[in-house]
Design goal:
The protein has 12 helices and 11 strands. With about 300 residues, it is an alpha/beta fold.
């Protein structure tokens, strides 16, 4: 809708409401000739008179039939202006995120809960799973942001910008009644002898070499989805190396116990919140989500080392 047409609709609706050209001009802070000119322009476009002019201004049949549409157009425009204002302020809009399954609950879940509570008019699209399909969703433009394993292969890194990088301890855990929990510190040999089955979990792009060696030494290992392995470990069946954020609540509740392996160097999983390098500016709603993810990562002790750009 161009500006002259909008001005004509506003003048028409105000004259109907006031029942007078002069009162409409006063309400719109215009001269009466300007209001008359706008009504004449609208009448020329519609092909007939909208008002009967005299001592009292009344609406013609043409005006009566056109009035609901004029008011609807003005209402829709007002709604659009308000929606644009809320979007610009980050209180409305759409966010889309692909996230590693191991970080979907502990990190992304609380951040999204805060976002949707504070801004219920923001639409969210979230997908979770393994690294490769999450990265594909980002590169295909299905999502604006992705929380994936990091670093990526050099060829892909040139297409991505890391907004936030995280370092997360990977810990060996067992159910609270598992025999290994009775020992303050254990060795790799203890895991081989008493830790079977040792679950091999895809919390990074490839299995960690140290965990592969332990799994091979046990003579029996199972490769399972992380949530399946977590279910088994909490019930005392086997042990596994999990990203700490995934099992933090279970550790705090005493359902799981961290096993410290004295002859095994610390294992760390790095991940990053990334976006496509050639993407346009972050929407205000997406920027709010990034800030909430950063705050949640800090509260979980995941060691953010990047900055929001």
């Amino acid at each position: 809708m161009d500006l002259p047409a909008l001005e004509q609709l506003v003048a028409f609706e105000r004259v109907v409401r006031e029942g007078s050209f002069s009162r409409a001009a006063l309400a719109l802070d215009l001269g009466q000739p300007a209001v008359s000119s706008r009504i004449q322009g609208l009448e020329a476009a519609l092909g007939g008179a909208l008002f009967r002019r005299g001592r009292r201004v009344t609406v013609t049949a043409l005006g009566e039939s056109f009035l609901p549409y004029a008011r609807r157009a003005l209402e829709l425009l007002a709604e659009g202006v308000e929606a644009a204002r809320l979007t610009q302020e980050g209180r409305r809009g759409r966010v889309s995120l692909a996230v590693l399954g191991s970080l979907a609950g502990a990190l992304a879940g609380p951040a999204l809960a805060k976002l949707t509570t504070e801004h219920p008019e923001i639409d969210c699209l979230v997908r979770s799973g393994d690294h490769e399909p999450m990265l594909t969703l980002l590169l295909d433009g299905v999502v604006e942001l992705a929380l994936v394993a990091w670093p990526c292969p050099p060829a892909l890194e040139t297409e991505l910008r890391a907004l936030l990088t995280l370092r997360e301890p990977v810990v060996l855990v067992a159910g609270r009644r598992h025999p290994l929990t009775q020992q303050r510190r254990i060795t790799s040999r203890d895991i081989v002898q008493a830790g079977r089955p040792l679950y091999r979990l895809r919390w990074w792009q490839a299995h960690h070499p140290a965990i592969d060696r332990l799994a091979a030494a046990t003579g029996r290992s199972l490769e399972l989805p992380i949530e399946s392995a977590r279910h088994l470990v909490t019930r005392g069946r086997g042990v596994g190396f999990f990203p700490r954020a995934l099992v933090a609540e279970d550790l705090a509740a005493g359902v799981l116990v961290e096993l410290r392996v004295k002859d095994l160097p610390p294992i760390v999983r790095e991940s990053a919140l990334v976006r496509r390098l050639r993407a346009g500016p972050l929407s205000p709603a997406a920027a709010k989500l990034v800030a909430l993810l950063r705050a949640e990562a800090e509260s979980l002790g995941l060691g953010p080392r990047g900055s929001i750009k």
